[in-house]
Design goal:
The chain is an alpha+beta fold. The protein contains four helices and five strands; from the N terminus they run βαβαβαβαβ.
Amino acid sequence: MKRHKGAFDRVLVDAPCSGTGTWRRNPDARWRALGPGLDNLLPLQAEILASAARLVKPGGRLVYATCSMLAEENEEQVAAFLAAHPAFHVVPVREAAPQLSFSAHPDHLALTPARHDTDGFFAAVLQRGGPPPAA
């Protein structure tokens, strides 16, 4: 990872998560324990996000995604990351992908079974300061 520091325009983190967004398709999963548990997942997600951030060049974007509907794994994870990494800021979904204006969240992509007839899904676009790289 060290030799790729600041080398990428775009980095995607498909974070390991509780999978609560898949309960629509797997209703029995809600009665099972949350895999390794949130106590283990939350620090792992933060560590992966911070590690991936080192790969993003100035003006580049980091996308953090989960199939969770829990704020602790989504909005709160992004807020904690931004507090610890002031070089990054949120790119609102309506700016990053205007065609996704139907999101349940004003800044991030948030799909819910009740509103979108899909699995639950979350994605945040985070940009390292500076102008965006040419598309």
